[in-house]
Write a structure and sequence with these properties.
Layout lengths: L1 H6 L6 E3 L3 H10 L10 E3 L4 H5 L3 E2 L4 E2 L1 E6 L5 E7 L7 H17 L25
Parallel strand pairs: 1-2
Antiparallel strand pairs: 3-4, 5-6
InterPro entries: AhpC/TSA, Peroxiredoxin, Peroxiredoxin_C, Thioredoxin-like_sf
GO molecular function, one term: thioredoxin peroxidase activity
Protein name: Alkyl hydroperoxide reductase
Length: 130
């Protein structure tokens, strides 16, 4: 998915409280990480995890969280997953596309929106009419 995310004009990286050496070993032994080409960042000091409020203080590790930050540095979406549930990367792409659509059109993005579908008016006078 990384090349597709890059083609949408976005960047992606993984950040964990594991050391760079753990990242290297995990990438070497894990078939799912063997071909990872996006940056893997070590947050051993937990500064990043604390700043984004995703640090699990009990374990010292970050919660499994995806953060969408716009070009102006504003967090637009933050998804935190349970430890036993993996991320849904197609949904991440849809969120990115929806954020870009809303910015380009000024329209809202309704529930279950998919690229190619229309947006909705964000005019407050439409509240309760949609």
């Amino acid at each position: 998915m990384y090349p597709y995310i890059k083609a949408l004009g976005a960047e992606m990286m993984s950040i964990s409280t594991d050391s760079i050496y753990s990242h290297w070993v995990f990438k070497e032994i894990s078939p799912s990480l063997k071909n990872v080409i996006f940056p893997m960042v070590s947050d051993r000091t937990q500064v990043i995890s604390r700043a984004y409020r995703v640090l699990n203080a009990a374990s010292g590790a970050s919660f499994r969280t995806s953060v969408f930050i716009d070009p102006e540095g504003i967090i637009r979406t933050k998804l935190t997953y349970p430890d036993d549930v993996g991320r849904n990367l197609p949904e991440h792409v849809r969120i990115l596309q929806a954020l870009q659509f809303a910015k380009q059109t000024g329209e809202g993005v309704p529930a279950n929106w998919m690229p190619g579908q229309p947006g909705i008016s964000t005019d407050p006078s439409n509240i309760g009419k949609i």
